[in-house]
Design brief:
7-stranded mixed β-sheet; two-stranded antiparallel sheet
């Protein structure tokens, strides 16, 4: 009897049911669920998750999901984690208009970048992950030699790709650090010393930091007029300081009490 009950409980976790959703979230109405986390439960059937039409954040990582059809009705979904599943088709996500953050690392998305075309209509998508080096998650599509360039071209609004910031604040520093790491990995260091190459050139010319004045006559005249005005201002300032000093001295003398000889 107990073994049968345990088996029934396991079967319920293989498919998302209304009872499972209510027990996990404490919500009686599925439309009231805004956040849902069902990580590593062996789920392969999304069941009635599509009825949670107000869902904003969903974590289904570490399951056995293959079919995303029930997610098509989640128009308010902004964050979706589907890493470590068995997903090959992303077509149902086309209608998730509000999607901003999408994690697909560790699936079986085909090697052709055409499998990502259905996501191009998602104008709010800013963060997409198809591989995760930390957990050694990837997808066949990531093996394409031009994968990164193609994805960035397909999704011009992307700010973060595979955990790497590609535009916006911090992107230049991130790229610099990445270039340094790539250089080290390339074996350009030998016995702790950087191998010098004769063809290396400075980043900028020696005269780069020199302030160069324009030959334009109009600009030269403007420089002259500005310097003349600046000189006059300094003279006026010195005169003002002198007048103020004299005034303060005369006022202090007036305030002193007169002394009379007895």
């Amino acid at each position: 009897m107990d073994s049968k009950r345990e088996k029934d409980q396991d079967a319920e976790f293989e498919k998302i049911t209304a009872a499972l959703l209510k027990s996990r979230t404490g919500e009686f109405d599925l439309e009231s669920i805004l956040f849902l986390k069902l990580r590593s439960h062996g789920i392969h059937d999304l069941g009635c998750v599509g009825e949670c039409i107000n869902l904003e954040r969903l974590d289904l990582s570490g399951n056995n999901i293959t079919n995303l059809a029930p997610l098509a009705s989640l128009r308010l979904l902004s964050v979706l984690n589907l890493s470590a599943n068995r997903i090959s088709s992303l077509e149902p996500l086309r209608s998730c208009d509000n999607l901003q953050n999408l994690n697909l690392a560790g699936n079986i998305i085909t090697s052709s970048v055409e499998s990502l075309h259905c996501l191009q209509s998602l104008r709010k998508l800013e963060n997409i992950r198809l591989k995760d080096n930390t957990y050694n998650y990837t997808n066949p599509v990531c093996r394409n030699t031009s994968y990164r360039a193609i994805v960035l071209e397909m999704f011009p609004n992307i700010k973060v790709l595979d955990g790497e910031r590609v535009v916006g604040r911090g992107s230049d520093l991130y790229q610099l650090c990445k270039d340094i790491d790539d250089t080290i990995k390339a074996g350009l260091y030998k016995n702790g010393q950087l191998i010098e190459h004769p063809d290396c050139k400075p980043w900028v010319e020696d005269s780069y930091w020199e302030i160069k004045r324009s030959n334009n006559a109009i600009i030269e005249e403007a420089y002259k007029q500005f310097n003349d005005v600046l000189h006059e201002c300094r003279l006026l300032n010195n005169r003002a300081i002198h007048v103020i000093s004299q005034t303060e001295r005369s006022m202090s003398l007036k305030k002193q009490p007169k002394q009379y000889a007895i």
